[in-house]
Amino acid sequence: MDFLHQQLALVQQQLAFVAVEPIDWKYYVQLFSWGVCLFESYLVLRQYPLYSKTAPPPVLAEHFSEEDFHKSQVYGKDKAKFALVSGLYKQAVDSLMLHYGLFAWAWDCGGQIVTKLGYSSEYEILQSIAFVCVVFFVSSIPSIPFSIYQTFFLEEKHGFNKTTPELFFADLLKGWAIGFVIGAPFLAAFLYVFKWAGDRFVPWLMGFLISFQMIMVIVYPTVIQPLFNKLSPLREGELRTRIEALAAKLKFPLKYLYEIDGSKRSSHSNAYFFGLPWAKHIVIFDTLIKQSTPGEVEAILAHELGHWYYMHPAKLLLVSQVHIFTILALFPAFMHAPQVLRAFDFPEKVAVTPPTIIAFLLFQMILTPLEAIVGTAMNAISRKFEYEADRFAVELKDKIKSEDAQDLGDRLGKALIAIHVKNLSTVWVDWLYSAYHHSHPTLTERLKALEGFKSTATKKEL
Ligand SMILES: [Zn+2]
User: Fold this and answer.
1) Ligand 1 geometric centre to CA of 395 (Å)
2) 235, 342, 345, 346 - which has most CB atoms within 10 Å?
């Protein structure tokens, strides 16, 4: 532990200038965030002309009817326009709020709320919770019209929306309520660790965050998700038998097998698994079950089990821990830096002893460009995992020595195509746009790779 703290102290020495030099941090945050926003807009503009192509890529030509391809192009075009306008609008609103000192105002507001409740400003954690609520409300309200437009106009126009206005607002309020019920104690504990551990907070906070993630793995499926969707055990039949047999052959600890009423909100389809190492849940969207044959859904699940077999979720968790560690290791430099708060319009009396939540929030904003790069790197890792899981499904026939698994690769290809066609997914994708935004390879890339995996698998047999 001492070695760790020595190393962290070295990092702090390098960053000592943050505490003393009057740098115009607000200006940099404006510059960075506009930079990221304009880059994202540029990506949309690169992608946009591809929606005017009149025929799908050759590999997909026989799978897309002319009508479906045309529909997917029009849907893509509408989504791109929406992304461009909403991205610029959101950035403009955030930028104005930053310019007019939203955070300093919200901190003051939080103080007044806490005073009204009968507590003094000594209660930093209470004021921090009130502050976060104020910031959250003020900054989320301008984006509500955009989500209304997206759900009831954009998705509706293309036949995906199943949400009613009542459900939309019920979801919104439920989301806020749950955010508060979980977020407030989380924030209180998070800030308490700083208070309690002082400058040696890094290992303690890491421990706290990992425990919180573990708890959420249990709480989310059992408590939170049922508030939004109905999960019912997958009914007996060919699909259930196939999935259970597959799980048994791979010794996948399948504890719960659910069908989820995803169609209540949208007709987009999906399947996923989660849970603790010894008790996994598999959840399949009713939309996927309706669209694909049991054999195709089984192939999708073979891909999902590939993620489990190669421990992809655990690896991603590890990468995210390294990411969190890096952020926490850099943070102390910004923790006691009145100059940083002054740059964001905080009055002298608040800036002298920076409240931890403020320092952390401003520090996160300063990290914006770094986070954009980390996001792209995470996408690259995730794509590599997608290929691995696809390869797993293709080669499964060798692992479980089953006649029936011979054509899993073909079925996976068919299922992927069906999902893309039904979801009207974009098929022509600009490489840079895809590298930045997509955690999955494009359909064309995956089909091509599947062919490759199939031919190497056949060669091994010969
Ligand atoms: Zn996957």
Assistant:
1) 16
2) 346
Query: Separation of 406 CA from ligand 1 center, angstroms?
Result: 20
Domain-located, residue 185: no
Q: Which of the two residues, 270 and 300, has the higher pLDDT score?
A: 300
Compute, in angstroms, the gap from residue 235 CA to the centroid of ligand 1.
Answer: 24
User: Are residues 342 and 452 located together in one domain of the fold?
Assistant: yes
Residue 268 sits in the same domain as residue 318:
no
236 is catalytic: no
Same domain, 313 and 424: yes
pTM: 0.84
* Active-site option among 40, 259, 286, 304: 304
- Say yes or no: 251 and 354 in one domain: no
At 123 the pLDDT is: 86
Q: How many A from CA of 240 to the centre of ligand 1?
A: 20
Q: Does one domain contain both 256 and 346?
A: no
Q: Are 193 and 201 in contact (CB under 8 A)?
A: yes
pLDDT for 180: 93
In a domain, 167, yes or no: no
pLDDT digits (tens, 9 = 90+) for 125-183: 999 999 999 999 998 899 999 999 999 998 888 888 888 999 999 989 998 999 999 99
**Regarding beta strands 279-285 and 271-276, do their DSSP bridges make them parallel or antiparallel, or are they unpaired?**
antiparallel
Residues around ion ligand 1, judged by CB within 5 A, are 386, 389
Distance, first Cα to last Cα, the chain: 55
User: Could you report the per-residue pLDDT of 227-286, keeping only the tens digit for each?
Assistant: 888 889 999 999 999 999 999 999 999 998 999 987 666 656 688 888 888 889 899 998
pLDDT score at 159: 84
Query: Ligand 1 centroid vs 79 CA: distance in angstroms?
Result: 23
CA distances to 257, 295, 352, 390 from 301, rounded to whole Å, are 12, 10, 56, 10
304 is catalytic: yes
User: How much distance in Å is there from the Cα of 271 to the middle of ligand 1?
Assistant: 9
What's the structural domain count of the chain?
2
Residue 234, domain extent: 229-291
Span 347-399, pLDDT tens digits: 999 989 999 999 999 999 999 888 889 999 999 999 999 999 999 999 988 87
**What does DSSP assign to residue 58?**
G
The runs of H, that is alpha helices, within 124-200 are 124-140, 144-149, 156-157, 165-197
Q: Which of 390, 395, 430, 445 is catalytic?
A: 390
Residues 421 and 312 in one domain: yes
- Indicate whether 301 and 249 sit together in one domain: no
Asked whether residue 445 is assigned to any structural domain, the reply reads yes
d(CA 148, CA 458): 50
Report which of 232, 221, 235 is spatially closest to residue 274, judged by C-alpha positions: 221
Q: What is the pLDDT of residue 261?
A: 86
Residue 42 located in a structural domain: yes
Tokens 């359909």 locate to 443
Last residue of a domain, one of 272, 291, 310: 291
